[in-house]
Specification:
The chain is α/β, with parallel strands linked by helices. It contains twelve helices and 18 strands. Bound molecules: S-adenosylmethionine.
């Protein structure tokens, strides 16, 4: 087995991001991945661990899992929230001849009981850290945790949930602008399952019950861009002017838009879709709590690629403008392209975006004629008609 003094056991330049957005400015790995693998290999050697006792949480394109596999470990449990990440890992594993070297997990809890060593790429929100720690409550006493992130994305507030779940947290020296936090599970600590976040909001003339699970965008909060989108549609009489049969909430997050659409267009069937497991869980819970679950379907998919071409009358989209920690328009472009694919000719994409991104020419090119419906100090709302 390769220890810390050995070269990294994987040629990181061979890792790719696809089907996640690819761009020369975006890497498929970061220094946190490297630190996690280096510490894990040293630990696995010292404690004589095999791969099946290692749990990887928050893996992205495969650097951690395939780093371990490159060093000869097999059977690691891997939890990934995003489908694009899951597929990138799968494709990289196949390309590197490491297919079948790990187990894909549906929940973090599924991998907890067998874990002696946990490697975790931390999310950026403290609330998400707390909820995942609660999912790790089945971890045995003595199991070792290395949780890390880019220094600029870590906050001291993350120590408390980690300490509540594991015991004393020992921050490691920052290296290459990343830092690991180390903790060993104290068996005397009892963890309560974390409750989902909840909120009740009134927006665009509707009262919605929102729910948010660990990594869902914005938890159970109403996003300000989404608020402007729905207020604008309500003010423009969207409800009276349109009677769509099929409405898609593309990148549904906590399901705010889907729940609003279900209440606004009572005859429509609603498709809510996101590639995040937590978003899908949140949207499902929000639709249920808002009393419209029977009219809506929530599916985990990459860019709604499960929906047929020309099958939707209306698509509603509040695209992300980050790729990990980087502001990047690639994912928005991918979702606009997908919106155009699933809209029938003459169908409408309602989109909200940060005005400085100047998406209008892009929407014109990818979807069709685009009109500005609303704007505030930060966001612009547009309607694009799918050209025939
Ligand atoms: C700005 S948030 C909007 C969330 C929600 N619609 C709202 O209004 O609060 C963008 C959403 O796009 C989702 N997303 C990112 N990449 C995606 C992809 N490839 N396929 C589907 N959804 C994606 C994110 O998980 C996130 O929930």
């Amino acid at each position: 087995m390769v220890g810390m003094s050995e070269p990294f056991p994987l040629d990181l330049e061979r890792l790719r991001r696809r089907p996640d957005v690819e761009d020369p400015t975006l890497l498929a790995w970061d220094a946190t991945d490297v630190l996690l693998v280096e510490r894990a290999l040293a630990e696995a050697e010292d404690a004589d661990l095999d791969g099946s006792s290692i749990l990887v949480v928050g893996e992205r394109h495969g650097a951690i899992t395939l780093g371990l596999a490159g060093a000869g470990l097999r059977g690691m449990g891997v939890y990934q929230d995003r489908m694009a990440h899951e597929r990138a890992l799968e494709a990289n594993a196949a390309a590197l001849g490491l297919g079948g070297s790990y187990r894909q997990l549906e929940t973090v809890a599924d991998g907890a009981a067998s874990a002696r060593l946990i490697l975790w790429q931390l999310p950026r929100q403290v609330g998400a850290v707390r909820r995942t720690v609660a999912e790790l409550s089945g971890v045995q006493g003595g199991a070792l945790l290395f949780a890390g992130g880019r220094v600029k994305h870590l906050s001291v507030g993350m120590n408390a949930p980690l300490a509540d779940g594991f015991g004393a947290v020992e921050p490691q020296l920052a290296q290459r602008k990343s830092r690991l936090l180390m903790a060993r599970r104290d068996p005397t600590l009892a963890l309560e399952p974390a409750a989902d976040q909840r909120s009740t909001v009134s927006v665009g003339g509707r009262r919605l019950e929102l729910r948010g699970a660990a990594e869902a965008f914005g938890g159970a909060a109403l996003d300000p861009g989404t608020k402007l989108l729905l207020e604008t549609l309500a003010a423009r009489g969207a409800a009276s002017g349109l009677s769509p049969a099929t409405v898609v909430d593309l990148g549904c997050g906590n399901g705010t838009i889907a729940a609003w659409a279900a209440l606004t267009w009572p005859a429509a069937s609603i498709e809510a879709t996101d590639d995040s497991r937590d978003a899908v869980a949140s949207a499902t819970a929000s639709l249920e709590a808002s009393g419209v679950a029977e009219r809506a379907r929530v599916v985990r998919a990459d860019g709604g690629d499960h929906l047929a071409e020309a099958s939707a009358d209306v698509v509603l989209l509040n695209p992300p403008f980050h790729q990990g920690g980087t502001v990047h328009t690639g994912i928005a472009t991918k979702l606009m392209r997908q919106a155009a694919r699933m809209l029938r000719p003459g169908g409408t994409l309602f989109c909200v975006w940060n005005s400085h991104l100047r998406y209008r020419p892009r929407l014109e090119r990818l979807v069709g004629p685009t009109e500005q419906l609303g704007r505030d100090r930060t966001f612009t709302v547009t309607a694009s008609t799918r050209r025939g």
